[in-house]
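hey can u run this one w/ iron/sulfur cluster bound, need the C-alpha cells asap thx
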Amino acid sequence: MEKLLVTAIQRFSTHDGPGVRTTVFLKGCPLNCFWCHNPETKDLKNEVLFTPADCIGCMACASVCPSGAHEFENETHILRRDLCMSCMSCVSVCPSSACEAAAAEMTVDEILREVIKDKVFFGDNGGITLSGGEPLIRKEAVELLKAAKDMGLNTTVETCGQVPREILIDALKYTDFFYWDIKDTDSARHKLNTGAGNEKIISNLILADSMGALTAVRCIMVKGVNTDDKNIRGIAKILSDLKNCKAVEFMPYHAFGGSKATLLGLEDNGDKSLIPSDEEMALVKARLAELLKLYGVSNISVL
Ligand code: SF4
Ligand code: SF4
Ligand code: SF4
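ok here u go:
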C-alpha cells in the first residue's frame, strides 16, 4: 500500500468534529482555491519548503540534488521548482532547516500509532479527523479510516467533495461524520476561483446524504466573491434537499495562508480586504436562517 503524505498531525483539536480530536492533514487536493489557507497541502507531490533567510550557503543541497534545482548566482540561492523531482535529498542534508519537507511519508500504521497516543483524551465521542488538502483523493485514506474504526475511534472527514465516487462510497462505511465544503453555488464562479465547477461536489453530497452520511456543510465566505444573496439562496436550496445535514457553518476567509505560500515559491495570497466584517457574516447567517425557515427546514443549525 502506498504511503500517505502527512503535512501535520494536530492534537487536541476541538473544532474538527465532536469532542477532542487528533486531526491528520493529508497532502494533495483536486481544487486550487485562490484563498487556500493550507497551500502546502495542495500539490499531490511532496514539496520543499525553502526559507532563504535560514540558508548558510553550504551548497550541500546542490551536491545531492539529482536535477540541478539548487542554483547559486552571485551569492543568491535560487530553488528551481520547475526542475525539482521531490526526492527530498536536499532536505535530508540541509544543516540549517532552510530546506524542509512539506510532508512526511507515513503508512496507515505509523499515522495511527501517533493518533492513538491521544486516545485517553478522546472520551466518548472524540477521535480522528482527516483533513487536508483533500483526504479522499487517495484510497489509502479509506484504509486509514477503516483501521481507525477497528480501533474503536470516532472518525470525521473534512472534504471539499471533489472526490472519486468509488472512494467516497467506500469511505462512507467507515466515517461517522463529514464536514462538507460548499464554496460557491454558482458553478462558473466556482470554476473561476477553485479551478473546477461544483457539479461533482454537490452530486457527491446528495449521494452521501442519501446513503445516511451525517454532515455539517461548511461555507468559507470571501468578501465580494461569494457573499451575494444568490449564493446564499443556492446554499439554502441545497440544504433543503438534505436529510442528514446537522449544521451549516459559515466561516470568514482569513489571510493566514500567505506566509506558507511564500515558502513554496508561490505568490502571497493573504488579502485582508477579502475578509468579511462581523456584521456581514451576521447578515449572511440571518439570511440563510430566514430562507431555511421558508423551506420548512428546522433540523439544520446555522453556525
Ligand atoms: S527535492 Fe530532490 S530534486 Fe527537489 S530540489 Fe531537493 S534534491 Fe533537488
Ligand atoms: S543545504 Fe541548506 S543551508 Fe546549505 S545551501 Fe542548501 S539550503 Fe542552504
Ligand atoms: S479545497 Fe481546501 S485545501 Fe483544496 S485548494 Fe481549496 S482551500 Fe485549499
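The mean pLDDT is 94. anyway lmk if its weird
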